[in-house]
Amino acid sequence: MATDKKIIMPLGERQKLARDFGVSLPTVRSALNGITCSELAEQIRAEALRRGGEVYLKVAPSSRRNRPDSE
Hints:
alpha+beta
């Protein structure tokens, strides 16, 4: 199940994570964006936080229908 949190990394750290875990950059990206929930994804997220990553909540784009009408 996907999560509503994502981890933002300092510049260049995603590439280093991919190299260190022996996986592709899309695999790291999916883990950090909360798309995958495997044991490997959990390990990548934990290491990302140890390396200075910060957790952010994903916010769904607001719908025009939900905005008050301006007159």
